[in-house]
Amino acid sequence: MSSAFKAFLNSSVGPKTTHFWGPVSNWGLVLASVADTKKPPEMISGNMTGVLCVYSALFIRFAWMVRPRNHFLMVTHMSNECVQLYQLSRWARAQG
Amino acid sequence: MATSKLQALWNHPAGPKTIHFWAPTFKWGISIANIADFAKPPEKISYPQQIAVTATGLIWSRYSLVITPKNWNLFSVNVAMASTGLYQLSRKIRQDYFSDEKEATAQLEG
């Protein structure tokens, strides 16, 4: 058990490296947008949400292809893709 | 001569045929979207989202300088993100906390 945890700690994409903490900061975008799902759709920026949809799609691929492969970054952007697409649908529906 | 240099760039392992090029390049879209949103009224700005954009921009700016090699492209795009985020935050804070007197007076008179 603890050897798996040690392996994580010492991994080339682990918490001792920037490859870990950068994606941690990207979770801020995800959590911010989850919080914004509770707000009225008039507050959604179509510009920003549309851009974030494309941005996260590209970075899912980037996280897979980069060496070392960064699964954490990949999952972060997959989550962001989901919430941004949801926000985009709320925004689109409110356009009437 | 120029053709072979262009060809070298075109075929580069982090060049325009690869995701290593397009993902960071498209990140500029976030700052451009924010600049487009400068025209929107501050009521529509989202505090959580702009705080996240600013924080992400600042953290990645630092990290792009501590990796090897330093990535000035990544640095510049994240500096832009942090800057536009900070500006949007300042617009909203100014409206929420520093223009109350005028609005309160207008409401009293109106």
UniProtKB/TrEMBL annotation, chain A:
Keywords: Membrane, Mitochondrion, Mitochondrion inner membrane, Transmembrane, Transmembrane helix, Transport. It holds the Pfam family MPC. GO terms for cellular component: mitochondrial inner membrane. It is found in: Mitochondrion inner membrane. The keyword Zinc does not apply. Its main location: mitochondrion. The chain crosses the membrane at residues 44-64. GO terms for biological process: pyruvate import into mitochondria. It is a multi-pass membrane protein. Belongs to the mitochondrial pyruvate carrier (MPC) (TC 2.A.105) family. Mediates the uptake of pyruvate into mitochondria. This is Mitochondrial pyruvate carrier. The lineage of its organism: Eukaryota, Viridiplantae, Streptophyta, Embryophyta, Tracheophyta.
Automatic annotation (TrEMBL), chain B:
It is a multi-pass membrane protein. The lineage of its organism: Eukaryota, Viridiplantae, Streptophyta, Embryophyta, Tracheophyta. This is Mitochondrial pyruvate carrier. It is found in: Mitochondrion inner membrane. Mediates the uptake of pyruvate into mitochondria. InterPro entries: MPC. The keyword Transferase does not apply. It holds the Pfam family MPC. Belongs to the mitochondrial pyruvate carrier (MPC) (TC 2.A.105) family. The keyword S-adenosyl-L-methionine does not apply. Keywords: Membrane, Mitochondrion, Mitochondrion inner membrane, Transmembrane, Transmembrane helix, Transport. Its main location: mitochondrion. It comes from Eleusine coracana subsp. coracana. GO terms for cellular component: mitochondrial inner membrane. Signal peptide: none annotated. One of its GO terms (biological process) is pyruvate import into mitochondria. It comes from the Eukaryota.
